[in-house]
Amino acid sequence: MAKVTITIEGNEEEIRGTLERLLTPPATAAPTEGETAGESEAPAAPAEGWTPEEIEAIWEQITPHSRRILAEIAKRPQGYPFEDLQKVLGLAGLPVAGRLSSVGFAERRVAPQKRSSGAKLVTRDYRARTYTMQPEVAEVIRSLAQSGTDGE
């Protein structure tokens, strides 16, 4: 039997990103023109967008800490660097990821068909080390946060 030993070194966020990439099945599509195998671009926006009602239902189900993180990311939806977000929140990478996990659970409860197709309110790009959010989602999140329903 073959034995494989892998050593992964780095900070918590780098280790988490590496593990997720190792455990994620490779895409079956061949690289497009100008792209080489192994390159990663920011994920494309899901074909099926989130409705304001779905976003609000998710917002109601997540923790106040998760709401605060979403509201902060919504301020810079085109790309919020991991390090900047951690500084603003006063949290390390793992606590941010842990608090965002309630968002994933709520997405699956509210719209399992979207979540299973890859649609997410927040997307992590490990190569660019940024969180991104669709502008329409960010607008709804900002509105919910400003209306005082952010739980804080």
SSE layout and pairing:
Blueprint: H1 12-23, H2 52-61, H3 64-73, E1 80-81, H4 82-89, H5 93-110, H6 112-116, E2 123-125, E3 130-132, H7 135-146
Antiparallel strand pairs: 1-3, 2-3
Order of helices and strands, N to C? HHHEHHHEEH
Would you tell me which CATH topology of the domain at 51-152 applies?
Arc Repressor Mutant, subunit A
Shape: globular
Structural class: mainly alpha
CATH architecture identity of the domain at 51-152: Orthogonal Bundle
What oligomeric arrangement do these chains adopt?
Answer: single chain
How much of the sequence lies in strands comes to 5-15%
Can you identify the CATH class of the domain at 51-152? Mainly Alpha
**Overall pLDDT, averaged?**
79
Q: Can you count the beta strands?
A: 3
Enumerate the spans where pLDDT stays under 50 for 5 or more consecutive residues: 25-47
The biggest sheet amounts to: 3 strands, antiparallel
Tell me roughly what share of residues is in helical segments.
40-55%
Rounded Rg:
17 Å
Number of helices: 7
Distance, first to last CA: 55 Å
State the strand order across the main sheet. 1-3-2
